[in-house]
Amino acid sequence: MNYYNYFTEIEEHFVRRRGKHLLISPMDWALIAAWRDAGVPLQVALRGIDIAMDGFLARERRGSSKVNSLCYCHDSVMMEYASHLESRVGESSAGSRAAPIRAEVDLDTEEPGQEQILDFLSTRISEIRALFSKQPAFEGVHRVLVRLEEVFDNLKSADRVDSLALERDLGIVDELLMTELRLAVLPVRILAWEKEAKKELRVYKKRLAKETYDKIRDNFMRDKIRREFNIGELSLFHL
Could you give the CA distance from residue 48 to residue 116 in angstroms, rounded to a whole number? Predict the structure, then answer.
């Protein structure tokens, strides 16, 4: 999987295929995050979008309507992902001559260098440090800050970057951060965000499995929390 262009590549590809410039919605962004978290490789997602859009354009001859949501492509993306997984199972059972399976990283894509990752982590550390200076009672946030500084120092002294291990570490830290920050949000704001999510997710509910629907809603709420405290996501996908 391509860590570093996943979101922007999917957004730009969908906009191109749609044929008219339209920035994707926060819910569509949350859907992309759900694909990412499910392990859908970038090229598989792009193929799924192509299949969905080709089918739509073949049926819509007049060109009077447009696909307004990336959700339209979800079924095709997941079908392509299922085919991708099935083909990988075949490869792994074909014998010792089969190519090794790389389920998470596209090694043909140039990865960012150590300095670029350090700059990214430094920015997140500065954001969290600024928050803690304003809200010193956030003990959980302080624990996140300490752990993130340890990750930074370890990476700075490392001979090489293990992107997979680093992404897993950042995911754990980000989960703790979101838990702590959600507790700091006024209940009335949480309720307002939940109502907004429910309204925005109406277009998704009939098309998506409950697990995916819940994941998109969770990603939407996390985005609201990050915006509330001006802290970016701790993920190499956002480099």
Answer: 31
